[in-house]
Amino acid sequence: MVSVQIYSYFVSLRNGLGTDPSLYSTDLVREDGAYHPVLSEITSMIARCNRPPSMQLTIRSSMEYRTKVESEKPWLKEGDSEETNQKARLAYEALLTVTARIPETDEYKNFSREVKEIAKKEFDFDYKQEEVNTFVTAFHEAVLLYSLALNETLAEGYTVSNGSIIIQKMWNRTFDGITGKVTIDENGDRDADYSILDLNPNTGVFEVVANYIGTEKQVVDEPGKSFHWAGGRKHPPPDTPKCGYDKSKCPKKN
């Protein structure tokens, strides 16, 4: 069996990727009484595995690794006037958000709790009321998948450098992960679950109204929830306006 060690990683969020030296800055961040260099915030997302303390686990600046409470009310901007916020809220009523589904299993809840404890103990980061983003569990399950495929590859006499065999063993398989059954199809894509969030006009909070189940290829309504269609509609808006975008479908009568 192969022992996989996961080292700390550094994350920075902004636009663009690459190894251009200009991506790095001389900024320092203080952690545990010591100063450490950080990446400038012009990259989309950089995650580097390395031995501590050469890279510090910094998840504060990456919204991809945590879910802020404020995301429930993205229309609300502190410092803006009530009138401006209400105009934004009205605009957001026409928005549906698709995001990775947050599992409700005991395994996920325990994993999330442990992530928060480790973040606080090892890196002095407090999630407070924020949720651990599903990207974290996805990384964890990716390592599990690689480990399974690697062990099978070595058991059959191949070497760790035989990437083509390892990848083949990752495809078209199902295993138990933190989020439940993890299924990888014959193309190497994960049959992931997603949630559809809609703004509740009464509370102003985005709520899950339906879930897409990847393995079943179907959308399942969330019990007790329903879609709110902007403009007072009772049904989804048509794909195109009744008269077309240029009104060509409603010629003027002579």
UniProtKB/TrEMBL annotation:
Record InterPro entries: ANF_lig-bd_rcpt (IPR001828), ANP_Clearance_Receptor (IPR052612), ANPR/GUC (IPR001170), Peripla_BP_I (IPR028082)
Record's subcellular location: Membrane
Location of the Receptor ligand binding region domain: 78-201
Pfam family, one: ANF_receptor
GO molecular function, one term: peptide hormone binding
GO terms under cellular component: membrane
Residue ranges with Basic and acidic residues bias: 244-254
Keyword field: Glycoprotein, Membrane, Receptor, Signal, Transmembrane, Transmembrane helix
Keyword Transport: no
Region (Disordered): 225-254
Gene Ontology biological-process entries: signal transduction
Membrane topology note: Single-pass type I membrane protein
Keyword Protein biosynthesis annotated: no
SUPFAM superfamilies: Periplasmic binding protein-like I (SSF53822)
Protein name from the UniProt record: Receptor-type guanylate cyclase gcy-28
Primary gene name: gcy-28
